[in-house]
Amino acid sequence: MKDDKKLYDVCIVGAGFSGLVLAIKLARAGLLVCLVELNRIVGRRILSTGNGRCNFTNRRMGAEYYYSEAPLDFITDNHQDLIDFLRDLGVVNKNLDGYYYPYTNQAKTVRDALEKEINSLGIDVYLDNRVTDITKDDIFTVVSNRDSYQARHVCVASGGLSSATLGSSKLGYKIAQKYKMHVTKLAPSLVGLTSKDICLKELAGIRAGGIVKYRDYSCEGEIQFNKDGISGYPVMCISRFIGFDQLNKCLSDVKIDFIPYFSETELTSEIKNRFDKYNELPILQALLGLCNEKILEAIVSYSRIYSDTVVSKLDEEDISNLVYYFKNFTIEITGTKGFDSSQVTAGGVSLNDINTSTMESISCPNLFFTGEVLDIDGICGGYNLNWAFTSASFAANEIIKRNKHD
After folding, report:
1. Predicted pLDDT at 1
2. How far is Cα 162 from Cα 344, in angstroms, rounded to an integer?
3. If both were cysteines, with which of 75, 240, 314, 393 could 346 make a disulfide (CB 3.0 to 4.6 Å apart)?
């Protein structure tokens, strides 16, 4: 049985990716560490990352891949550090065009490697413990529904509101507010979008490449259509903005460019050439090959042209409409699929209240925050796990340095 009367050097609230990395780094430096985790296993959410494949970092790394209300000039390219950290744990990786995965293609490999090291280092892990409060006198007391744990330093690595079935929590935000820190507005990110647009009935089940555009934001990749919305890499990358607009009740439409390889001028020329060549064919046959057949039908319908119309009967206005909808296919969005379906929470504990070189609270010394609980979220592609690692590394470096001086 673990000794719950220990005075720990560090108590980490949350045994997700960030908390596990931090615990390993601290324990390797000789500090007495414990993890207090809501779930019955450590790293439960790791298992669902990257659709179970765990894209953990990216060769393209920098502040431009992240969002926050605060400046992000402290973000550097440290993706090799994370690769080396996991390799040291036995995780061999593979690089797919800059996207790094475990070679096994299984997120479980990463989770199991972290758990193995936690056990090897003898770190105390208290599972199935819902933390309810963190108090501070000379030392911290972390209070849970099962027990309490005392420590000289505490790190809140409890994540955000995403994926409730995997153990999401408001705890980190409540603790931050208790210690006079600001929490920004919160919205689901890396999540599918919902729509009642009639076109989706015909497009359900289709996957197509294109650029998804929302206001001033855009992202290219494969789009997946279903009867009640859209998803896929580019949709998820812009979803945070729709989440916040839904919160503020100012949603706009999503537009899709299905022909990103042509400019509008080039596409106009392409269509005119086809119409000259296939003058007596129905429009759908003349346009065959530009994109998915079902999408062609929808674009022709949007352009107010009957699908059996012969090309010779079309005029310049028809061509102009076709070009517009190929490049600006419009879908009326009703919102996102919500926090429960999202992979990450946008917004969080304000970085203006955090020393971003150490992850320490400015208002409460020796209280640290790492990972998703903070107001920083990345696009798809391994960026959020890389941030979990980065913030844990910042906190570990500071705590280790501080304890060497004690």
Report:
1. 36
2. 5
3. 240
Dist CA 17 CA 29 (whole Å): 19
Cβ-contact 21, 85 below 8 angstroms: yes
Locate 217 and state its tokens.
Answer: 């934001």
Strands 344-346 and 187-189, by their bridges, are: antiparallel
What is residue 405's predicted lDDT score, i.e. its pLDDT? 60
DSSP string for residues in 61-106? -SGGGEE-SS--TT----HHHHHHHHHHTT--EEEETTEEEETTS-
Question: What's domain 7-187+344-405's architecture?
Answer: 3-Layer(bba) Sandwich (3.50)
- By three-state DSSP, how is residue 405 classified? helix
Determine the longest span between alpha carbons in the chain, in angstroms: 86
Task: Please write the tens of the pLDDT for every residue from 207-231.
Answer: 999 999 999 999 999 999 999 999 9
For 392, the token pair is 């844990």
Contact 402, 355 (CB under 8 A): no
Token output for 32: 């007495």
CA–CA separation, 71 and 192 (whole Å): 27
DSSP calls for 314-373? --HHHHHHHHHHHH-EEE---EE--GGG-SEEE--B-GGGEETTTTEESSSTTEEE-GGG
Structure confidence by residue, pLDDT tens digits, 354-385:
999 999 999 999 999 999 999 999 999 999 99
